[in-house]
Amino acid sequence: MRIFLAIIVAVVLVVALGMVLIVKRGAGAREQPTVIEERLGRTLRHFAIPASLRIRKNPVPDTPDVIAAGRAHWADHCAVCHANDGSGNTEIGRNLYPRSPDMRKATTQELSDGELFAIIRDGVRLTGMPAWRGNEADNWKLVRFIRHLPRITQEEIDEMERLNPKSPAEMEEMHRENEFLHGH
Prior knowledge:
Layout: H1 2-25, H2 35-48, H3 51-54, H4 64-77, H5 79-82, H6 91-95, H7 106-109, H8 113-122, H9 136-148, H10 154-163, H11 168-182
């Protein structure tokens, strides 16, 4: 009974401390999450993924064609937040709360294939990561590409820049440059 009471008191103190910090600091998205927030978020994300999905292996083969398909999909859908190189160093990625993770680092690379797939397919609550319920094979190809990110080459990044979505202003600028360069 004493242990149970001590646990309850500890939980109440942690929650009270958290509330004091929120009131003192505010709950804006400008600051990086605290270590406690990061650990809590990762723990909640882990338990949000069913165990049967966490243990799934990637059914898509690890081939150059699969990596190329994943790279093209990433450039068109994911790079706006995660960057072509997976660093998360984009205007959107830097301003999310929590920030877009560096997909090349251990905190992402140590996740299981099933966990990565679930994060892509189902998104992550209370973050900027949306659910992408598209084609299951495409999501598995993205998992293969995420595994490839620590070894991405500059040539691949350059190719992806051509595949990144362009705003109307960027399209107009490209058109003007083309006209100037080709004399049209």
